[in-house]
Amino acid sequence: MIRRALTLLTLLAxxxxxxxxxxxxxxxxxxxxxxxxxxxAWATSIEDRGxxxxxxxxxxxxxxxxxxxxxxxxxxxxxxxxxxxxxVRMAGDAMYPTTYAPWSAALSGTSGVGPKPxxxxxxxxxxxxxxRGLQLHAWFNPFRARLPGSxxxxxxxxxxxxxxxxxxxxxTQTWIDPGNPAARAFVLATILDVVRRYDIDGVHIxxxxxxxxxSETITRRVHGRRVRRRRQLDFPDxxxxxxxxxxxxxxxxxDWRRANVDSFVHALYTGVKAIKPWVIVGISPFGIWRSGSPxxxxxxxxxxxxxxxxxxxxxxxxxxxxxxxxxxxLDGPQNRFRALDAWWRTQNPQRRYVWPGLYTSMTHxxxxxxxxxxxxxxxxxxxxxxxxSDPPGHVHFRIAALxxxxxxxxxxxxxxxxxxxxxxxxxxxxxxxxxAAPKLSVVAENGPSTVVLAPGDxxxxxxxxxxxxxxxxxxxxxxxxxxxxxxxxxxxxxEVAVTAIGATGIASTPSLxxx
Length: 515
Description:
The chain is of the alpha/beta class and about 525 residues long.
């Protein structure tokens, strides 16, 4: 009590109608620690099970697009998420202005036509996400050139018109050939351009490397009868295989295809780190690496079908987190969800993070899962990581599923597994230096005083974690970007604690003040 009284007297002596600063003095009560867990959701304009995220339809006015985005981010923050993975390149297009691709038709309805009046949706999304304490990861589909079933003529700058020699038509798919080194370099440059120009927290790619297998129906006469059957199609990359595969000494076409994807993934990781070492790189492959791994789990073989050796990328540390798409129910056939979550974690000598992707959309539409299924999956992920240095995490596909049915699922999570807040885990292999405890001071004018936050040293601050304790002893938390460095005491907090969080998520010790 004597210490508390001296603190208050010191602060009161330093206040006046002028914004003079006073030094912080540590009250007796330390703030509670905030848990670390990656709670993210994918957001895209592509429809799935009757759901769309953002924008809800092409051709909306910029004001409507911005309003929808604000609402989506408000709901994300209120529900307990701490990251949003925003789809910015779906198929050779862009949801932001760039010389590498035309404007996406998802915005205006027409390829190459941007918002009018003009604005930058990605820059807007980054600012609005950070204002709500959310990380914003830019999500790319690197090699898909055009969405199946899309109509309308592509803009002249679209890859299908600007570089038709890179493009392959494959069943219903239109694809950029990963076997062409110039095409790979161009796609990589497209992504690195975003890393340079935008204050994103992460780069994310999912499972579209080579396309999933397509087939066709053929009809043959057998003993005078017409017999129809399906025949698998091979990806039409014979010209690049001859020029860049056989000519370089490869004898197996599938090995060469995997090498093309490996080369791209490695170049992506090293390229991002060369520009901004703290920007997180995440990859979300199909949940099964090879059919039969682990024993008893069979299904589509991503290694041989889409030529994605995601186990190697994890083992070699070419990513910061892996989000395998575990799109099966917890107690489904072959125990796939639990078995694959456990297996992926055993393939991780570099100690990267394994945060499963959840098929949250299955709680909506026909044959829907119960809302409790997703909460149970999150609980299972947590249970397997208790006592380890591996923090839990997960990614919802998709964010609209949380808020369908009047926010039914969001309410289930908020009242249960998201009851307590969580920060995105730290990435110490990207830099382990902690910022110094922040400097806190109080300025006062007529009315409530303000706590001013300042870095304690030269280590860059990515976030301020602000915790306030009311007079009943309850602590509240908020995360804010470093430009938001003034905390009003209008709600009369008994104590304010501030922790500086660096670019790689490493936290300082908290500074405390009684304003």
